[in-house]
Structure formats: structure tokens, C-alpha cells
Amino acid sequence: MSSPTILLSNRQIGDVNRSRVLRALCDHGPLSRADLARLAGVPRATIGTIAQGLVEDGLLEEHAPTREAGRVGKPSRPLWFRDDAGLCAAVDFGADAVRAALVNARGDVLTRVTVPCPTSTASAAQLEAAVVEAVGGVLRGSPAEVLGVGIAVPGVCDPATGIVRGSGPVPGAAGSGLSEAVAVAYGLPVLVDNDARAQALGEKWFGDGRGIATFASVQTGVGLGVGLVLDGELYRGAGGATGELGHTVVAVDGADCHCGLTGCWETIATLRWLRAEAKRLRLPDAERLDAAALVALGTPRANDLLVVYADHLAVGLATLVQLLAPERLLLHGDVVGGGELLRALVEERLRERSLPHLRDGVEVLLSSLDQDAGLLGAAGLVLSERFALAA
Amino acid sequence: MSSPTILLSNRQIGDVNRSRVLRALCDHGPLSRADLARLAGVPRATIGTIAQGLVEDGLLEEHAPTREAGRVGKPSRPLWFRDDAGLCAAVDFGADAVRAALVNARGDVLTRVTVPCPTSTASAAQLEAAVVEAVGGVLRGSPAEVLGVGIAVPGVCDPATGIVRGSGPVPGAAGSGLSEAVAVAYGLPVLVDNDARAQALGEKWFGDGRGIATFASVQTGVGLGVGLVLDGELYRGAGGATGELGHTVVAVDGADCHCGLTGCWETIATLRWLRAEAKRLRLPDAERLDAAALVALGTPRANDLLVVYADHLAVGLATLVQLLAPERLLLHGDVVGGGELLRALVEERLRERSLPHLRDGVEVLLSSLDQDAGLLGAAGLVLSERFALAA
DNA sequence: GCAGGATTGTCGGGCTGGACACCGAACACC
DNA sequence: GGTGTTCGGTGTCCAGCCCGACAATCCTGC
Q1: Which segments of chain A belong to CATH 3.30.420.40?
Q2: Which residues contact A292 (CB under 8 A, 6 or more apart)?
Q3: Which residues of the protein have their beta carbon within 7 Å of strand D?
Q4: pTM over 0.85
Q5: With bands split at pLDDT 50, 70 and 90, how would you rate the model's confidence at A271?
Q6: Tens digits of per-residue pLDDT, B158-175?
Q7: Which A-chain residues 186-225 have CB contacts (< 8 A) with chain B?
Q8: Which residue of A67, B63, B237, B349 shows the fewest CB atoms closer than 10 Å?
């Protein structure tokens, strides 16, 4: 059933409009009622009643009146999220720990809990226990009601059902046990989604995706994943199976990929490839090389490899650009370590690999969310569900 | 300005709900008020008032009561579009003619007008004159008010502004003259869009895209284009620049493409490639070969080439599948001539080039719209604009 | 032939929530 | 101190969905 064919009623209209107001605040930062009214093209009174409800619910609060020089008239009182508003428990997985955090609607990380756990080898039961413990620690310190729990899983999962269909880095996450265990333990809604998609939501709520209708958030490093926000909505596709940009063909008869296909982008643009090339070129410490180290080396031979790395990354990004014409590409993971130098190289190579009419429409940015991209993404899962602006 | 931040009012609620009802009728065919109510999960009375408005506006009509055996109770009176409802003037471009048609909301082609015109060499003025004449001929015979004019252009264009940024097959369409000329001549809204995207809309309204949330409509043959319907909405991307699937890289250091890039999918999956291969293999009449002729040949050597053609097509389609996980791929153009044999081959090759968890989620279909895909797509442009279900 | 059940479509009252016009409050400028 | 501008709030109106009840129509079973 594609079109749910759900009719709108005046009941839903209120929810939708409240969500729209919240979204506008997220996209633009603190705004007064009058600002919101201008933005939406409606009388101030309309916003007034909507905002009143949000303030009474404890979601928004009024800042002190702004006294800007040269501004005539009554000073505006900007509205902004309370710091205990929209609290989400966010979970993601490190190599040897389960990380959880309490995040508010502003994107502030209020509490962190780290539970040691060998995620790559832990059994489902061990993993469930670690996640439940981490979430519990976060919930205990919460100053207000928590909306729900978001879990970003590095693997294929269907958010509609909460079932993880498989995960390479965290095999124990497979199945539906994780979300069920947390839901049973704390009675909260649990949202599970792929980590790359969650990162995209993190960018949409708290990062450089705010106010951008169409962008792609690309995870680089060991694997290549992508989260797409298209026309303002996170795109999940049928069964939540999207984002396998890493396994698009960039060489018809290319090298075998670990996934069983051949010529995947992952065979030429991951750390595995980079390190193999570095070894071939006899660069020092090739086995532990990454973008940051490559930039730090700075030798001519290292720089040459950096350019090729950038070019190979651009190949896959160009596919995104040609097919979807996003306004921005936000890069996560290893590339961030390469800094502005690598970013500029990737952007340059991308332009050369894009059609003329697309060349100037896209900008490449390094994610500003840094280490917390996964956690903020997991929080975004909850916020998007709770404040869905869908209609 | 991503999120328009437009609030909903009780005024719009009516429009939205009317659109939803129309869309449901489109997706499911004739439905009674009770059917619609069940589908939407609302009381029959609600649908009743909505339907009443649509009937009074002359959009819908009641069919005769259905008398099905074994059905107790009052027989239902299905609602369906009147044959003069939702009339659109649709325009597309053939090699040596401008084609126009009057299409209703059912997808019936009521009138056709063909104006001879060498579209590949005609000046902008000549092309405008031909289009205006064709549209005029269609409008003259219209039994009721026409909602608007849809024009499907084989090229890059931005539907938001009506500006065609460039067209290989129809260079004279470039600029904004076409839509302005028609708008001035007849005072109707004019919608211009890329032909591959329009075809996708045609499938969504009248073809095998009905009721499918996420599908891709792929044009094959001389060029390779794609129209994407994602989560029920046609995806246009920033500036309407999407759909250049043909220029995604399938070979990092591949052959030069006419677009200036290298290793594009178009270099290995178009008729140009097919004919070059056929010539190399000394197949008869290689210069005029197409999928239909290749299947008709049926020789072992021809069949081998057919398999490679299918495989090369599958490369680009696999990119769509890995990245977007659509439920269906609808193929247009040359491939349709290859019939079920070629379709099955493409589907088989696509499965082999897709990740395991995506393999079974997608079906490959040949478009059933046939020659009228472009015209029906152009009509879909108008209907989508007029009956936008956006909220 | 006729009662009973089932299904469909319609009518009026109730409720939610935005649109509109107007008011007081706060500040800049003269 | 007066005037103009901007901001936020209040009360009334109205569109449109929800719910309950009712007439119309047809099938089944005796």
C-alpha cells in the first residue's frame, strides 16, 4: 500500500502545524512568533496559538527580549527549545563498546554512558544486555520524560518493523531482539535504523543538513554507506534496504568484492584499498594508514595517492550527483581526517566527473558533527518519528 | 528554502482530502463511497461529503449499481472519473513531428494532433509555432475546460521555472520560449518537464506505477534516462536536474562519452553500443539493429549479444537498486521491442548484480504504455500539478 | 410472499482549529 | 511627551471532519 490514503482531519492539522513550527525552529534557530509568521506567511495570531500550546507542553521557552540597535518597535522574544525538551536516548556501536547518550531537541548531548562490549563478537544476548544497561544509565539521569530510544545499527535494517536483517560489524544485532529487549525493559518506543541513514537525520536536525531540502550524507572509511534526504524527507526505500552506494558498479568487469559482486565502488574507495595501494607504493606504516596520516605524510608520493583516493571517492559521489542532484554532500568517517585539503580535492575531482549543468549545483562539506554523528543520528530517529511533519 | 514552512489550514484540508480521494481512485480503479471509507479508515459520511463536492464539480460520476452474486445489502454505486474530467493537453516530440493529444483523468487519449516538424533542426520560433498549432488543434476539439498543457521535453529542464536548459534531440526547445508561447496563446498553465520524468508520472497515473510507492521508469535506446517516483512523489532534485543515470560511471577509466565524461553507462548500454558490437560481430544489418531485430534474428551469435546487452543494461539498473531499492523498474524504449525474452534476461542479470537482500525485492516490467508513454506523462504533469496531494 | 439481516448512502449536531480584526504593550525617533 | 512601528494576545467567525441516527435497497430463509 503506497498511498496510505489517510485523510486529514482538524485533529491532525494541529499536530502537523506544531511539527512544522518545530522544524522551522530547527532549520533557522531561535525565532520569534513574528518571524515564524512571516516565514509561514500567516497572521501572527495563528502562530501565537500554536506556540502557546508548545510552550504549555514544556517544549519551547521564551528567551529574553532581543535589543538590537536600530530595530524599532517592540522587541521580539525568540522561542527556542527548552533544554529538557525532546529528550531522546540515543545508541550507537563502537568497536569495543556500546555508546548511549541523552540528547535534547537542540542537539546537546546531556549525558553519556559507555558500556564495554566486544561488539564484533558479542552474542545477541550479550549485546542486548549491554544496550539495555547503557540505555538504563542514560534514562536514570534524565531530567524529564524521554520520548523514545533511537538505535543506529551498522547494517541492513527495516525501521518499519525494527528487524535488523544483518550486520557485518555487529552480527549480534541481527533479528528483532534488540528493539524488543529495550522496549520491554523501559516501555519506550524504540526506533532502529541503519547508521548511515541515521547520520543523515543527524545532519538534518542538528548539522549542515538543516534547511537543506536535498542532500546526501556519505560514510567513508572501512565501508561506504549513504543516507539520503530527498525533498526534506529521509529516504528509506522499500523495506528500508537503501543506501548501498558502496556496492554500485564502477567497473563492469572489476575486482571481486567481499559482498560477492564485482567491481563495486567499495573495491576502490575504502581504507582497505587505500592501504593496499600504500603498501604497493611502499609508503610507511601502510597497514594503519588513513586519510589523516596520508595528509600528514605530505610527500609527493603520498600526495599522488591522496589525489587518486579523492578521485575514486568522487566516482561514487558523481553517481549520486548525476542521479539525484543533491544540493550538498556531507562526508563522514575517514575523509574528515583528511581535512580541507582532501575535501577540496574531492570536490574538484567530483566537478570533473559531473555533467556541466550539475557541476556547480553541489557543494562538498565535511561533517561538523564529528564523533557524535551516530548518536545524534539516533536521536534524530526519535525526533523525526515524534515530530513527523508528514501529512 | 527547503521546507516551505507552509502551515495547513482547514481550507486546505478539503483540497488535500479531495486529492487523496482522486489518487485512491486512480490507484485502485472505480470505488464506491463505502470502499473509499474502508480504505481510508474513516466513516462513510466523511467520504460522502467529499465525494459530493467532486461529483458536483463534474469530476466524478456514479456508475450503475453493481449486482454481484452473493453480495447482500444495498448494492454499491462505484465512483469514477467522467470522461471529460481532468482534461489535459499533452505534448511530446517525435523525430519529425510535434505530437499533441487531449487526455482525460482516466488516461484515455481523446484527440490526437500531429504537426510535421523537423524537431532536431527546427529553430526555436519554428518549434514554438508547431507546438502552439498542435495544442490549438487539441484545444479546439475539447468537450470541456482543459486544466493545462503538459510538455515532455527530451532534455534538461527545470519545471519550477519552465526553462529548458538544453536538449540534444530538440535544440530549439531550449530557453523559456516554449512554455511562454503556449501560455500566452491560450492562457492556460503550462508544465514543462524532462521526458523521462514525465514518463514516470505517466506510469504513476495510468500505468504499472499505480499504487506503487517507489519505482523507477527507465528510458532505453538512443539515450538512457530515468524518472524516479520515491515514496509516492516524483523526485526532481535541486533545479530539476536529476535523471542522468546514463552518465553514471561504470568504468573508472572507460571509453569517452559524447557528454565529455568517461566510462558512462551510456557508452555500453545504448543502441550506439549495440550496433557497434553487432558490426564487430558481423551481424546482418548492424547499422539499423535494435532489440526487436536482435531477438528476431535468433542466431546463437545474436543471442550471445542479447545476453551481453541485457547484462550491460543490468549494470545501470543495479545502481538504481542498490542505491534506492525501488519496488519496480519499468522499462521504456528499445528494450520493449525485445519482449519477454529480453525482459527476463535483464531481470536475471540484474539479480546477479544485486546484493542478496535486495535481489528479490524488485521486479522488472516492460512499460505497458507503449507509444503513448510520453503523451500520458505530459498529461500526468498537469494532473499532478492540479491534483497535488502534497501537504 | 414476507420478515429479518446486511450493506449503502444521507442528514444534523458537536468539536477542533485556523483566519480575521482589533487591542494593549514596548521601544525608537523627533 | 507625542507619534509611528512592531510585537504578542483576545474574541468571533467559519470551514471541515467526527459521530450518531435513519431511510433505501437487496439477499436469505421460511
Answers
A1: 88-201+373-386, 211-368
A2: A334, A337, A338, A339
A3: A 7-11, 32-35, 44-45, 48-49, 51-52, 72-77; B 10-11, 13-14, 17, 42-46, 49-50, 65, 67, 70-75
A4: yes
A5: very high
A6: 999 999 998 888 999 999
A7: 211-214
A8: A67
